[in-house]
Write a structure and sequence with these properties.
By secondary structure, the protein is of the alpha+beta class. Helix content is 32%, strand content 21%. The strands form three sheets. An eight-stranded mixed sheet has the order 1-2-10-7-12-5-4-3. A hairpin with a 3-residue loop joins strand 8 and strand 9.
């Protein structure tokens, strides 16, 4: 499986020859798996630790307390057990995903009432965890900057002007999920075909994932190797491209197909938490004849469990 590791510091400061080597590795990785590992990003690990600490407090609240923040898929707030089945996006029958999430999304209004009502609503902040807001907002600012840096790198790899994609991210939509994967000894036996997250591709341009290592963790699919455990580096973000970016490249790069394994029987106390930032583009962006946000809305609706 070809999932290269890219050092952004080396990319920014490298010689033309070094940058060409990095570009080739990125191109190969996105052609085969749609995934990269990225280091040299400058995001403080303590920030991610702080978010997880506060989020654990929320997820361990009684269900009735969490229900006050319940939201629909694509909204802002708590997605409880059984809310999503990501495999639905592939048209695959599946039990609901074995996770809970707290979701945030773009919240700075554009001034267009119709666009703002659908894509730029205020976020929800749990009263029980007042320490969550500050690290999340700091993290989101870093993710926006990092995502634009990644889009600039991808444009150069394609031989395009550096702003090929970022000219469409002046006021973009984005989503951010804190995904909690409870332990098997809390959930019980998974149903046949049930995963922490079922097989799917993401919908936007780039996804920036901060994950924890575990036996019930991330797997990536390639035509050559099938399903394989994704390589892990605690200092790296795991990056994959989504459907819009794959379409933007005319299919040169593939949207990274992935899943998260069920909680393992041989590690019944394992629980994991992932921080997942989904980057998109400005509402109404035409991506090779497809309205980006008509597509996004359709995909978000598809994975919601009725």
């Amino acid at each position: 499986m070809t999932i290269p590791s890219v050092d952004l510091r080396a990319w920014r400061s490298g010689t033309p020859g070094a940058r060409a080597e990095i570009a080739t590795a990125v191109d190969n990785g996105l052609r085969t798996a749609g995934f990269l590992l990225v280091t040299g990003h400058g995001v403080d690990p303590a920030l991610r630790t702080a978010i997880r600490h506060e989020a654990h407090t929320f997820f361990r609240l009684p269900p009735a307390a969490k229900e006050a923040y319940a939201a629909k898929v694509g909204g802002r707030g708590w997605l409880g057990p059984g809310a999503e089945a990501n495999a639905y996006a592939e048209g695959t029958p599946s039990p609901p995903d074995l996770k809970e999430s707290f979701s945030f999304a773009a919240d700075e209004p554009t001034g267009d009432a119709a666009v703002d009502a659908e894509w730029f609503r205020p976020n929800t902040w749990p009263r029980e965890t007042p320490g969550l807001r500050r690290p999340v907002e700091t993290y989101l600012a870093r993710m926006r900057t990092l995502s634009d840096q990644l889009l600039e790198l991808l444009a150069v790899v394609l031989g395009e002007p550096e702003d090929r994609f970022t000219r469409h991210t002046g006021h973009p939509t984005w989503g951010f999920n804190i995904n909690w994967y409870p332990a098997r000894n809390a959930l019980g036996e998974p149903r046949p075909g049930q995963f922490r997250i079922g097989a799917h591709t993401d919908f936007g341009t780039v996804t920036v994932l901060d994950r924890q290592a575990g036996r019930g963790g991330l797997q990536v699919f390639t035509d050559a190797d099938g399903w394989q455990d994704a390589p892990y580096d605690p200092d790296a973000f795991t990056i994959n491209i989504g459907d819009l970016m794959a379409r933007w490249t005319g299919g040169r790069w593939r949207s990274g197909r992935h899943r998260v394994l069920p909680p393992p029987a041989d590690a019944p106390a394992e629980e994991l938490m992932s921080l997942v930032y989904f980057y998109e583009c400005d509402p109404g962006t035409d991506v090779r004849g497809t309205d980006s946000h008509v597509y996004l809305r359709g995909q978000l609706d598809a994975i919601a469990v009725d």
